[in-house]
TrEMBL record:
Compartments reported by the entry: Cytoplasm
Source organism superkingdom: Bacteria
Keywords: Aminoacyl-tRNA synthetase, ATP-binding, Cytoplasm, Ligase, Nucleotide-binding, Protein biosynthesis
Coiled coil (UniProt feature): none
Gene that encodes the chain: proS
HAMAP family linked: Pro_tRNA_synth_type2
Pfam families: HGTP_anticodon, tRNA-synt_2b
Enzyme Commission number(s) of this protein: 6.1.1.15
Major localisation: cytoplasm
Name of protein: Proline--tRNA ligase
Gene3D superfamilies in the cross-refs: Anticodon-binding domain, Bira Bifunctional Protein, Domain 2
Catalytic activity: tRNA(Pro) + L-proline + ATP = L-prolyl-tRNA(Pro) + AMP + diphosphate
Domain Aminoacyl-transfer RNA synthetases class-II family profile residue range list: 38-341
SUPFAM superfamilies listed in its UniProt record: Class II aaRS ABD-related (SSF52954), Class II aaRS and biotin synthetases (SSF55681)
């Protein structure tokens, strides 16, 4: 993309309504525009990151053997009357009447609808295990929408639902989700710690929330400092291997890590004092096992191998896809702007032309721009007729992890400059080497 042809409405001043850094930078970098409280348009740069995050979620769900589908945003109230949640859900549910006077709602989640799909099409243990998921917009009429996409009213969620014959199988699905979520967040450059949580209105016995530590997080968390040392890394996972998934789950959840809802002072105080940490965190996901709560209420049964009929065991598992943009920025920025991790960056690198209109400089930039595209990468070329300072400020604000700076003086010596957004370090090299280096960086991502 050439910046002169892009739509990047960068703001010069700090928007007064933004209280936290991620909200401020998302507005300033022209990523989102508020349309109503907690409801946003995704401008091209924000939309690009949103799509990258979705892509990672899809890839990791596929790896775990989970199957994508798409359910609508609007749902008939009758489904929710079957589970009893139409009355229980309260003011957060946006209720709508269609022209026939039928009660509808904008889905805050999809347990009822997926159970309806299941009972219509699955009747035998032979079709299990099954995990279906989608990435779809949700609406919750939050009392206090705030912090930009962090607590929106309309927000994008990945929600997945497992169907299993036995509790044991459903717990394997739970562990599979836990492991796949760890990998998902790590690929986004985030450390999200699974913490024992309260089951809330969905109801269930087993549930963990994934929290990214950040001062601006809305949850209060307590944990053993050693949990932050555990990483999934590049280890091979066989998602069909029950023992391996369970071992990873144990590894990540045995040390103390809880939200304030389940915090137990007596257990916490048994940890050596120097390891006892309290902090704030952003909830970026949650997994639940809730047994037969919905299958009982909605008649989702399967035939067992011995000819009996049992309600299917279920769980639901969510990732806050749009909230993740805010969480990533909270975790990765400086006073000049965002610092995108390579896994989610909207463009792989920026090319800054220091002397637009100078024939040699233009030609060198064009050549690199084309070479990067040919290598399958997506560079952003700042080809505006602007001062160098303004170009650098834009690049720093929008946070591309790598910048190639091209000017007549360097070209005279046969070099361009490659700069890391994270460290600020610059290295001079030939244009060919700079392209090769960028290609190499993204090869493993
Ligand atoms: N209002 C919201 N805006 C943006 N993302 C949200 C919002 N509510 C929930 N999410 C995201 O969707 C994920 C799954 O939804 P879940 O039902 O667990 O939310 P929740 O526990 O009600 O969230 P919270 O406690 O933050 O209100 C959450 O972990 C969170 O990342
Ligand atoms: Mg939750």
């Amino acid at each position: 993309m050439r910046l002169t042809r892009y739509f990047l409405p960068v703001l010069k001043d700090n928007p007064a309504e933004a209280q936290i850094v991620s909200h401020r930078y998302m507005l300033r970098a022209g990523m989102i525009k508020q349309q109503a409280a907690g409801i946003y348009s995704w401008l091209p740069l924000g939309f690009k990151v949103l799509r990258r995050i979705e892509q990672i979620v899809h890839e990791e769900q596929a790896r775990a053997g989970h199957i994508p589908l798409l359910m609508p945003t609007l749902q008939p109230a009758d489904l929710w009357r079957e589970s009893g949640r139409y009355d229980d859900y309260g003011q957060e549910m946006l209720r709508i009447k269609d022209r026939q006077g039928r009660d509808m709602l904008y889905g805050p989640t999809n347990e009822e609808m997926i159970t309806d799909i299941f009972r219509a099409h699955v009747g035998s243990y032979k079709d299990l295990p099954l995990t279906l998921y989608h990435i779809q917009w949700k609406f919750r009429d939050e009392m206090r929408p705030r912090f930009g996409v962090m607590r929106g009213r309309e927000f994008l969620m990945k929600d997945g639902y497992n169907f299993d014959l036995t509790k044991e199988d459903a717990l394997h699905a739970y562990n599979r989700h836990l492991v796949s979520y760890l990998r998902t967040y790590e690929r986004m450059g985030l450390q999200a710690i699974p913490m024992r949580a309260d089951s809330g209105p969905i109801g269930g016995d087993d549930t963990h929330e994934f929290l990214v530590l950040a001062e601006t997080g809305e949850s209060e968390v307590f944990y053993d400092a050693q949990v932050t040392d555990i990483k999934l890394g590049a280890r091979e996972i066989d998602y069909d291997d029950k023992a391996q998934c369970e071992a990873v789950m144990q590894e990540f959840t045995s040390l103390y890590a809880r939200t304030d809802e389940t915090h137990d002072v007596a257990v916490f105080d048994a940890i050596p004092e120097e390891r006892r940490k309290s902090a704030r965190g952003i909830e970026v996901g949650q997994i639940f096992y809730f047994g037969t709560k919905y299958s009982d209420a909605m008649g989702a049964n399967v035939v067992t191998p011995d000819g009996g009929k049992v309600p299917v065991h279920m769980g639901s598992h969510g990732i806050g896809v749009s909230r993740l943009l805010g969480a990533i920025i909270e975790a990765s920025h400086d006073d000049k702007g965002i610092i995108w991790p390579e896994g989610v960056t909207p463009f792989h690198c920026g090319i800054v032309n220091l002397k637009q209109g100078d024939a040699d400089t233009d030609a060198a930039c064009e050549a690199m721009y084309k070479a990067l595209q040919k290598a399958g990468l997506d560079p952003l070329y700042d080809d505006r007729d602007e001062r160098a300072g303004a170009k650098f400020a834009t690049m720093d604000l929008i946070g591309l992890p790598w910048r190639i700076t091209v000017g007549p003086r360097g070209l005279k010596n046969g070099v361009v400059e490659l700069t890391s957004r994270r460290t600020g370090e610059s290295v001079e090299m030939t244009a060919e080497d700079a392209v090769a280096r960028i290609v190499e960086i993204y090869a493993g991502i």
